[in-house]
């Protein structure tokens, strides 16, 4: 993409005529092929100056416009209305490096009319402070006409200087402080200046903005962010033989438990599939239950050790999660590149070209797809211009975290919530989560008032938690004295920090060949430990689909299903977490169901267009998992030649679809015999990405089949859990969810469902 910005200085009194001429030209420009944006901005400091902004897919279409009749007519119309142009009035820039020496940053923000005076007072102070920042050159303050939307358009000597400044949390206080309250919900875009000689070059039609010789690295998938979401995506792609690159702007891994602690039961199932569940159990502790106290009185207690769960709820600091996943990824031949930040990218019909800032300088990577797993302050989200549906919410309170030892008489392994309410409103909270180590806990509570006072009573700017002093052991003890059982003592404060909770979900999860997942897509309170686990689920859903797309085996709509399936789940989780955060709102009538929901064990994609069923009897399969539901594990399966019972997970484990065909003693012999022909067609229908098995009830006769492999449901566990009789089938997707089911076996329905995934592959 290429952008132009042309400044027009209207003669006194000619401003309305210039705006009118632009509106006429704008409508015509919008009809031109390759035009992406056309705007007229007003200089907020110099109201007689306008800036015409256009964006185009490439230099060729820009050239056609500038040499064509529409631009000529507009120039002719405004020439008598404007002063002669000056040097530097026309700027050309790309969203990837383009040969120029400087970079430009466009920060879009909102200044409500009622607060305009406050902004006008603070902005000159910011200009004075910015003058001393290394690498900063100049900026303009532009406004969209008749709007509260402003643009701070700044020029820097290079991307490295800009990112170095923005990465330093002190910038929000030292330079941007006077207008920090307006910088909480911004859209930021970075552009690279185009050298004067390069601006007239016209590439061949259809070429990407960067020449192939300029691309330093090529890969199938570029993943930005090496937290749990990005690591999960990389593992799943690497397990499928997909070449991927994983970059992380943090130079070193985290060293303390400042993020997620709880690992959900469903995540443990995924880790079993990835081969890291033992390492996780060895490094963590089991969270065995929870207790809630309101104004000193216990309101409920629940055990989380439910016999039907495949795994319990594990307590594991996120830095340990990242270590375990990083080590697993290394066994697959992939290691994160640390200290490498995404600066910009551009996409076309065939792939994505990304500019990276590395310790050795700027590097360009060409990939088929880009996955934005870069967290709450996602660069990918920002560059895509994604917005939070309904805006980004923010809790008014400041909170503090701490890692301490607690001397008290509370049950081991329990998550404890202590709340104080006055007139039915929460005015104090303390959450204590067990950590590995004797009497060691992570505590979360409201920050002392002095921290809020340091923000001036306003919303704190980004990075504020690193600017404020760390809470002390005395701060922790004060919260404990107010809320915890009398006599509780805290000691050995290992670390502490202050934070504010934001919540929201982006309007879309995909833009062409670029996707967002995890905190890049949704932010929510830590209640229930949803953030990390939801991000892992995002990556688990997305990676197998991207892998098929890379191999050319995906149906046209398969990648669209990522947003279709995960966005509603993100909305539900954000809403539930906001409702439950720092309140005692619980479904006391069914605590077990609520816990299973929190642990993602009830997660279903029932509304996905990828799933379906054929059931002739309304009561058939009623006891089994529905299309889109998680496929539960069962035991007691016997395979000839194997001296021990097998689990269903032994059949579905891997990176492919699994077809489970079932027959009992009442099944029609011809229907069972037809299973062999159905399975013979599967390799062509599913591009070789499907395994099939025939499960027989103990009383069913053994058919003479060469394929598929046959197992006995010796204990009847599959029959009971999946609700099957006669003949039936379940198609299990690589992510462990039911894609299709039927009773009796419906070969045509199965073929249609596979077509939704593989598009009739041969």
From TrEMBL:
Superkingdom of source: Bacteria
InterPro entries according to UniProt: ABM_dom, Dimeric_a/b-barrel, FAD-bd, FAD/NAD-bd_sf, RIFMO-like
Keyword check for Flavoprotein: yes
Key words, A-Z: FAD, Flavoprotein
Disulfide bond in keyword set: no
The protein's name: ABM domain-containing protein
Domain ABM: 2-93, 103-191
A Pfam family that the UniProt record links to this protein: ABM
PROSITE patterns given in the database record: ABM
Phylogenetic lineage: Bacteria, Bacillati, Actinomycetota, Actinomycetes, Micromonosporales
Cofactor: FAD
UniProt-annotated stretches for the region Disordered: 617-639
């Amino acid at each position: 993409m290429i952008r132009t910005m042309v400044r027009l200085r209207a003669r006194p009194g000619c401003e309305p005529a210039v705006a009118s001429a632009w509106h006429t030209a704008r409508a015509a420009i919008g009809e031109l092929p390759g035009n992406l944006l056309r705007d007229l901005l007003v200089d907020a400091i110099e109201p007689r100056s306008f800036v015409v902004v256009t964006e185009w897919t490439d230099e060729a279409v820009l050239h056609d416009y500038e040499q064509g009749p529409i631009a000529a007519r507009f120039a002719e119309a405004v020439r008598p209305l404007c002063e002669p142009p000056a040097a530097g009035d026309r700027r050309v820039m790309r969203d990837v490096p383009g040969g120029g020496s400087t970079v430009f940053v466009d920060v879009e923000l909102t200044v409500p009319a009622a607060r305009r005076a406050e902004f006008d007072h603070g902005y000159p102070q910011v200009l004075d402070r910015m003058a001393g920042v290394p690498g900063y050159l100049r900026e303009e303050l532009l406004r969209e006409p008749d709007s509260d939307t402003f643009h701070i358009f700044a020029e820097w000597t290079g991307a490295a200087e800009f990112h170095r400044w923005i990465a330093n949390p002190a910038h929000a206080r030292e330079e941007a402080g006077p207008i920090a309250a307006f910088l909480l919900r911004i859209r930021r875009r970075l552009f690279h200046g185009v050298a004067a000689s390069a601006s007239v070059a016209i590439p061949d039609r259809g070429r990407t903005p960067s020449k192939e010789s300029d691309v330093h690295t090529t890969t199938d998938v570029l993943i930005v962010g090496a937290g749990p979401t990005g690591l999960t995506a990389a593992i799943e792609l690497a397990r499928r033989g997909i070449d991927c690159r994983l970059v992380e702007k943090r130079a070193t891994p985290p060293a303390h438990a400042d993020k997620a602690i709880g690992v959900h039961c469903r995540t443990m199932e995924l880790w079993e599939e990835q081969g890291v569940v033992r390492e996780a159990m060895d490094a963590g502790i089991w969270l065995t239950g929870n207790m809630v106290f309101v104004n000193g009185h216990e309101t409920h207690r629940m055990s989380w050790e439910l016999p039907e769960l495949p795994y319990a709820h594990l307590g594991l600091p996120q830095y340990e999660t990242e270590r375990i996943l990083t080590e697993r990824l290394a066994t697959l031949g992939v290691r994160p590149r640390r200290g490498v930040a995404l600066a910009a990218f551009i996409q076309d019909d065939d792939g994505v070209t990304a500019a990276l800032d590395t310790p050795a300088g700027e590097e360009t990577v060409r990939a088929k797809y880009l996955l934005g797993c870069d967290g709450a302050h996602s660069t990918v989200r920002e560059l895509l211009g994604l917005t939070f549906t309904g805006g980004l919410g923010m809790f008014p309170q400041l909170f503090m975290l701490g890692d301490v030892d607690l001397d008290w008489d509370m049950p081991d392994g329990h998550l404890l919530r202590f709340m104080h309410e006055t007139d039915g409103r929460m005015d104090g909270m303390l959450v204590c989560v067990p950590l590995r180590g004797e009497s060691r806990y992570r505590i979360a509570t409201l920050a002392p008032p002095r921290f809020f006072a340091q923000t001036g009573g306003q919303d704190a700017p980004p990075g504020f938690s690193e600017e404020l002093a760390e809470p002390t052991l005395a701060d922790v003890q004060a919260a404990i004295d107010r809320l915890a059982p009398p006599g509780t003592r805290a000691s050995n404060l290992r670390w502490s920090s202050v934070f504010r909770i934001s919540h929201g979900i982006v309007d879309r999860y995909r833009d062409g060949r670029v996707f967002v997942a995890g905190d890049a897509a949704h932010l929510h309170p830590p209640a229930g430990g949803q953030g990390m686990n939801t991000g892992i689920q995002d990556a688990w859903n997305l990676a197998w689909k991207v892998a098929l797309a890379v191999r050319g085996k995906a149906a046209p709509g398969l990648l669209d299903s990522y947003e279709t399936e995960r966005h509603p789940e993100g909305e539900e989780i954000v809403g539930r977490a906001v409702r439950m955060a720092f309140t005692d709102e619980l479904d006391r009538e069914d605590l077990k169901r609520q816990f299973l929901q929190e642990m993602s064990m009830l997660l279903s994609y029932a509304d996905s267009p990828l799933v379906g069923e054929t059931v002739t009897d309304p009561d058939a399969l009623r006891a089994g998992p529905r299309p889109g539901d998680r496929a539960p594990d069962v035991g007691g399966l016997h395979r000839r030649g194997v001296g021990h019972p097998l689990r269903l997970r032994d059949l579905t484990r891997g990176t492919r679809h699994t077809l489970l065909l079932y027959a009992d003693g009442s099944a029609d012999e011809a229907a069972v015999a037809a299973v062999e022909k159905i399975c013979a067609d599967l390799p062509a229908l599913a591009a070789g990405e499907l395994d099939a098995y025939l499960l027989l009830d103990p009383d069913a006769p053994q058919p003479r089949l060469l394929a598929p492999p046959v197992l006995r449901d010796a204990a009847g566990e599959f029959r009971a859990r999946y609700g099957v009789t006669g003949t039936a089938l379940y198609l299990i997707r690589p992510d462990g969810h039911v894609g299709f089911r039927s009773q009796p076996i419906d070969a045509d329905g199965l073929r249609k469902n596979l077509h939704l995934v593989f598009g009739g592959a041969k």
